[in-house]
Design brief:
Layout lengths: L44 H43 L3 E7 L4 H15 L5 E5 L2 E8 L2 E8 L4 E6 L3 H8 L4 E4 L1 E2 L2 E2 L4 H20 L8 E4 L7 E4 L8 E8 L4 E8 L2 E8 L3 E3 L1
Parallel strand pairs: 3-9
Antiparallel strand pairs: 1-5, 1-6, 2-5, 3-4, 7-8, 10-11, 10-14, 11-12, 12-13
Length: 274
């Protein structure tokens, strides 16, 4: 048999087409590829800010609760004081003395009451005190001060004998009186005078930190004082104090600039007394 290698007549190689079956166009968006990372969550800016603010809100809430607890404890102590004052015999009177002699007068009066046998009419004498934070030379120190310098409280039944026993105590100069008649204090007035010492004692008894803010006093300066500015842009200029902020240890003062008084804000360390 003879093999015929003659090409097909009239057939061009470019005309040959291979049919691979029907072709369908596929959109890449139709493919779902699962990489196993789970669901992706995108946090919004609001979510982030909310999470950050959450911590502050919790701290504020804790502080508010602590403050509320302290206020409730303080009110309980004051209510106990009120009940005690209402149940005690006698009235409260204010006795004049020399400033700085309050404790000495109390000691002398207590001794006279026993010596004269006046316990039935004179029941108690108190020098009201309070703890304050004193700022001196830039340093803070807690000190005990008298609430009413130059005065002593006395609980007593007023009659000629008890009046004489108190009035003739050394360093006593008289009673707080109206038309020469001693005037008793109201219980509200007594509570206000005794409360600082009572609350301080209650806090000390609990051995816990006090939530009650202590009064702050500045020993170095007073409103109206003339001072010299020693630091800052106004160094070397004289100033007159118009306001004192003891908590922040700052003062407001008037300085003369170009012939005019100008208010400035200064720290305690920037000034010293003339």
């Amino acid at each position: 048999m003879t093999q015929d290698n003659t090409p097909f007549e009239g057939t061009d190689a470019d005309d040959i087409q291979i049919d691979l079956g029907p072709h369908e166009e596929t959109d890449l968006d139709d493919f779902d590829i699962d990489l196993g990372f789970g669901e992706t969550v995108t946090a919004s800016d609001d979510d982030v800010l909310a999470n950050l603010a959450g911590g502050d809100e919790e701290e504020d809430q804790a502080e508010a609760e602590a403050s509320a607890d302290a206020a409730a404890a303080e009110e309980a102590v004051l209510e106990e004081l009120r009940q005690r004052l209402r149940s005690q015999p006698g009235d409260w009177y204010v006795v004049h003395t020399y400033s700085g002699m309050e404790n000495r007068v109390k000691q002398n009066l207590d001794s006279r009451v026993k010596t004269l046998g006046m316990e039935e009419f004179i029941f108690e004498s108190i020098v009201p005190t309070e703890d304050v934070v004193e700022i001196r030379n830039g340093a803070k120190k807690t000190v005990t001060r008298t609430v009413l310098p130059g005065y002593v409280l006395v609980r007593m039944d007023m009659n000629d004998e008890s009046w004489g026993a108190v009035r003739h105590t050394p360093s006593v100069t008289g009673f707080v009186a109206h038309a020469n008649a001693p005037v008793p204090l109201s219980l509200e007035e007594v509570e206000k005078m005794l409360a600082p010492a009572v609350l301080a004692k209650a806090v000390a008894a609990t051995a816990g930190p006090s939530q009650r803010k202590k009064k702050i006093e500045v020993a170095d300066f007073a409103v109206g004082d003339n001072v010299m500015v020693v630091q800052g842009p106004f160094a070397g200029v004289h100033a007159s104090i118009t306001e004192i902020n003891a908590n922040n240890q700052r003062i407001k003062a008037l300085v003369e600039i170009l012939g005019r008084e100008t208010p400035v804000d200064l720290t305690f360390s920037q000034v010293q007394k003339d």
